Amino acid sequence: MRSALPPGVRCIQAFTRDSWYRGFILVLTFLFYTSYHLSRKPISIVKSELHKNCSAIADHGNRSHLDNDTWCDWAPFDKPSYKMLFGALDNSFLIAYAIGMFFSGIFGERLPLRYYLTIGMLLSGLFTALFGFGFYWQIHSIWFYVFIQIANGLVQTTGWPAVVACVGNWFGKGKRGFIMGIWNSHTSVGNILGSLIAGIFVSSAWGLSFIVPGAIIAGMGIVCFFFLIEYPEDVGCTSPQHHDQMEQEPLLRQDSVDEIFANPHNDGGSVNPVAYNPQPSAISFLGALKIPGVVEFSLCLLFAKLVSYTFLFWLPLYISSVAHLNPKAAGDLSTLFDVGGIIGGILAGIISDYTGGRATTCWIMLIVAAPMLFLYNYIGKNGLTTIIGMLILCGALVNGPYALITTAVAADLGTHKCLKGNAKALSTVTAIIDGTGSIGAALGPLLAGLLTNWNNVFYMLITSDILACLLLGRLVYKEIRSWCGHVPRPRGFKEI
């Protein structure tokens, strides 16, 4: 008598072939973008090693340096203007990233995603490692590090539009907020791993804090080349459903649809919408801006990302300064902010899926984040327990909206009903949203470096959160009206 199939085999059989492939792509793209963020994090950990309080270091072996508070610093960061130099490094990366992002989506729609990601990750690994080689080559010129940051910022733009476009190709509207909320934890996981890896080497040989992450992202680039599948049809899987069948009224007037995908050879008469083109062309930059909600969410992300990236680049130094911890301890503690970001991203996805209010979910989290940031600045240094609690709470409230906008919202807008099935808009829409957000990501660390004290930095972050809320006001109003029955609309993200 034959026994029943083992429970593990029955579990395997419970999933369809499509489900296995979708899960594989989700895990693969998760690992890809984890490596991107892992390679960005070391600079924030190494800052407190490049410039630290040398007078607190005893028995350094050279008594002639006892009256010099900068004897242990790495030139040129041993000068009083070290904060401005750190700001220059941050903004060299972030400004290049912001500018490059607007072009990256355009390239991403016209080039094979597998090749595009592979080249991007290999080059990111190269430039990240070159920053670390500055330690071994004894390079003390600020321009060397600025050049590396600019080059790295440009090549890092290959990541986000490509991975979001790939996931959007494989996953339909369904539980997109929940799925992408979990998937978007790659940002926080990458930050955590980057902090821990950099922290291992920061006090002994800080060059390895860059070289090891550089090797990891380059290795993931090789994995991408051999395993990434761009479209379900490439392996015989079914295409996802991007829109609810029950939606009946058009999201844009027909003339607006035609204007977005107008025939460039049209003589002014009738136009040929993309719906009738068997090979839909890539959307134009201006056409993507006309998709309802793109402008509002892009500007909101500018301020939300300003807050998030200020924490990303300056939190370890802030903790080290106010809590008087060594660089490794401050770096390890700063990972709790990213733990909160994972929780916030998942919660934002679940809530927005259930309520159908992407904008309202972001608005509530942003408005609550403002007083919490004020509270953290004043009580977040009073004991380890308070620091841990406030870091997790602020991380959830700050990164929750940021995660939701850059994933589920971007995918919703990139597969908007008005596009009539043209999937080629996803990469451009994602690049516009994240590119606009990256302007804020550049401004935040720059202003943090210029402001005179930490209190002013937190006032800037609170103001940014409030401005982000204001920019979502119209969309929140429309969502609330739809819930009150003014506009018949099924649950989920629709016209905004």
Largest sheet: none
Kindly state the percentage of residues in helix. 55-70%
Average the pLDDT over all residues and give the rounded result.
80
Order of helices and strands: HHHHHHHHHHHHHHHHHHH
How many individual helices?
19
Q: Could you tell me the strand content as a percent range?
A: under 5%
Number of strands: 0
Return the structural class: mainly alpha
Distance between the termini: 62 Å
Q: Give the radius of gyration.
A: 24 Å
Shape: globular
Low confidence ranges: 245-279, 488-496
Describe the structure.
α14 runs antiparallel to α15. With 496 residues, the protein is an all-alpha fold. It contains 19 helices and no strands.
Q: What's the structural blueprint in terms of helices and strands?
A:
Elements: H1 7-13, H2 17-40, H3 42-50, H4 82-110, H5 113-136, H6 142-156, H7 159-170, H8 176-183, H9 186-201, H10 208-227, H11 254-260, H12 285-289, H13 294-323, H14 327-355, H15 358-379, H16 384-414, H17 426-450, H18 454-471, H19 473-483
Short characterization:
Helices cover 69% and strands 0% of the residues. By secondary structure, the chain is mainly α.
List keywords for this structure.
496 residues; mainly alpha; 19 helices; globular
